Amino acid sequence: MTESKLQTADKPSRTPFQESWRILRRNRLAMAGMVFFIAFFLLALAGVIVTQEWDLRRGAVMDPTTIRLADKLKPPMTRCSESDVPATDRPLFGVYLLGTDSLGRDVLSRMLQGAWVSLTVGFVAVGLSVAIGIFLGGLAGYFGRWVDTIIMRFVDIMLCIPRFFLILTVLALWGGGIFKIMLVVGITSWMGTTRFVRAEFLSLRRQDFVTAARALGLSDLRIIFRHMLPNALAPVLVSATIGIAGTILLEAGLSFLGFGVPEPHATWGKILDDGRKYLFDAPWLTFTPGFAILIVVLSFNLFGEGLRDAFNPKLRERGA
Amino acid sequence: MGGTGKLLDVRDIRVTFRSSDGPPARAVEGVSFALDAGETLAIVGESGCGKSVTGLALMRLIPSPPGIIETGQAILEGTDLLTLPEHQMRDIRGGKIAMIFQEPMTSLNPVFKVGHQIAEAIHVHQDISKEDARTRVIDLLGRVQIPSPAERFESYPHQLSGGMRQRVMIAMALACNSRVLIADEPTTALDVTIQAQILELLEGLRDQTGMGLILITHDLAVVAGTANRVAVMYAGRIVEQSPVAELFAKPLHPYTRGLLKSIPSRNVGQAKLPVIPGTVPEASNKPAACHFHPRCPYARDICRQEVPELRKLSPGRLTRCWALGDWLDEE
C-alpha cells in the first residue's frame, strides 16, 4: 500500500467552542454581563457564608435577623449608635453600609441573604425546566409522528395557562416556601426549551452522523442523549441564561406580593415590599433591592444574548 | 465466484416510499443478489436508481415513515435480517453488518473525539474494559493506516481531512469484525488520489478479514478497479449482473452499454461524449413495463408492454432485457 502518500497535513483548527469564545470575547456588553454574572455568583456564595449562624453563641458574622429598634430606618453609611445597641447586635465594623429597615435590620446582610435565594431559585427552577424541556423536546424531535403530536399539543395547552396566576394559585393553596417556588416555576416554564430542542432535533435527525450512529447499532436513547443532545445544547444554554433572569424577576415579584419565601428569611422582592411603605422616608430600602434586581437581570440577559450571537454560525462568518 | 455457502442472500427486496400527495414511489422493485465471503459486489447506476435505498434496506435504516420494506429476504449466515425484531437487528448493525457513507465530513459526530466514537461502537457490541477498547481502537486506527494512531485517538473530526475521516468511518465499521460491509459511495466526496488509497484499503481489509463488501457507486472506474462482480441497477431494478471483466468486455443490457460508452476517455480530440438521452425517471412516475424503454435505442413494442425477466445467459451473467441475443447484436 502507498503509505508514503498518506495525507497528514491536517488543519490545526479551533474547536467550535473556542470559535464561539473568540466571538463572545469581542462583545463588550456580553463580557460585562458575564463579569456581573460571576460577581453575583460569588457574592451570593459569600452571602450564604456570612449570614449563616455557624456557631450558636457567636451568631452569624452578619445576622440579617437582628432587630435594633433604636437604629431603625437609618440611611446608608450610618454608624451604629453604640450607646443603644448591645455589642453582640452591632453590624460588621459598626457601620450600616446600606442602611437599616423599619425594624433596624441591616439591609446589606438581608440583601446578601436574598442574593442566595434569587440565585438558587433561578438555577434550580431553570435547571428543572431545562431538564424537562430537553427530555420532551428530544423525544418529540427524534421520534416524530404521534410522539411529536402528543408532546407538542401538550406544550400548546401548557402555554395557554397564564403562568403567574397558576403559580399564585398553587402557592396560595399549598403555602409558600423556597422549594415549592422552585418546583412550581420549573414545572411551568419548560415549554420554550421543548420547542427549541425539538426544532434542533428535527434538523439533526436528518444528519449523516445520526444515520451512521444507527448503522453502528446504537440504541435510540443513546443516540438522542449522547450524540444529538450535545449538538443541540447551544440554544438551550442561551435560553437557560435568559430564563434565569426571568425567574429571578418572577421570584422577586412573588415575594413582593407576599407569596414568596416565608419570614424571617430575606429575599430581594420582600425587602422591596417592606420598603414600599417608606418610599419617601427611606428610599434606600426600595432603591437597593430594585437596583440589584435590575443589574442582575440585565447582566444575565446581556450575557445570554452574547452567547446567542457567539453560537450563531451566520454571525461567526461575518466576524471571522 | 458463486459457490454454495453464500454469506448474504438477498431475495426480492421491494421498498416503497408512501407520499400523502401523489402515487407511492417504488424505489426498489424486487432486487435479488448474493454475496460470498471475501468478495466485492459493486452496485452501479445513475443517481436515484435505488442503490443507496437497497443498502439502507439491508441495514433496516429506511426512514419510516414514509418508507417501508414491502417484501423480501436478506439472509445473512442463516438469519433473515428483514424479519428480525428491532432490538435484535440493533445487535446485528455494526456487529455483523456495517455501513459507511458518502460524506465523511458529516458522518462523524462533531462534538466527540474520533477515538471515543470508535470505542463506543465496540462498547455497544462487546463487554470490554475501557483500556482494552482503547488499545483496540488504536490498533484499528493503525489498520486503516492513520499515521500516529495514538495521537489521532484524541482528535476531533474537524481536525481531520476528508480522507482521514473516511478512514475513521472504516475503522468504526470494522470495530466489531463485521461479516458484510456496505460502502455507500465511499469515495465520491474525496479527491482522486485519496479515492485510490481508500479503495485499496477496503480491498486489503476485505482480504484480511474475509468479509463481503458491497460497494455502491456510480463510478465505473471504481468498479473496474475493485469489484469482483457487478450489479447494474436502473430505476429500482437490477438490469444486469455479471463478473466484472465480462461486463466491461461485453455488456449485455442496453443501459450498461450506454453507461460504458459515456465514460470519458483520456483520448483528447473526441468531439463529444456519448450520453444516454433522457434522465432517470422519478420513482413515483416510472414508465410501464421495462423502465428503460423511453431511453433505449433498441426499444420495441414488447418493451412497452411486458416487464422482461432477469434471465441467466451464462454462469454468473444475468440480464433483464427482451433484446438479448436476438436483435441487439444485429445492429
Structural class of chain B: alpha/beta
**What characterizes the major β-sheet of chain B?**
8 strands, mixed
How much is the average pLDDT of chain A? 81
Portion in helices of chain A: 55-70%
Note the beta-strand portion of chain B.
Answer: 15-25%
Written description of the protein model:
The complex is a heterodimer of chains A (320) and B (331). Chain A has 320 residues and is mostly helical. Chain A is 67% helix and 1% strand. Chain A has twelve helices and two strands. Chain A has helices at residues 16-26, 28-50, 107-143, 145-160, 163-174, 178-187, 191-205, 208-215, 220-256, 268-276, 284-311, 313-319, and strands at residues 78-79, 95-96. In chain A, strands 1-2 form a two-stranded antiparallel ribbon. In chain A, α3 packs parallel to α6 and α9 runs antiparallel to α11. The longest helix of chain A is centred in the middle third of the chain and has 37 residues, at 107-143. Chain B is an alpha/beta fold. In chain B, the strands form two sheets. In chain B, strands 6-7-8-3-9-10-12-11 form an eight-stranded mixed sheet, sandwiched between helices. A four-stranded antiparallel sheet of chain B has the order 2-1-4-5, with helices on one face. Chain B starts with 7 loop residues before the first strand and ends with a helix. The chains are: A mainly alpha (320), B alpha/beta (331).
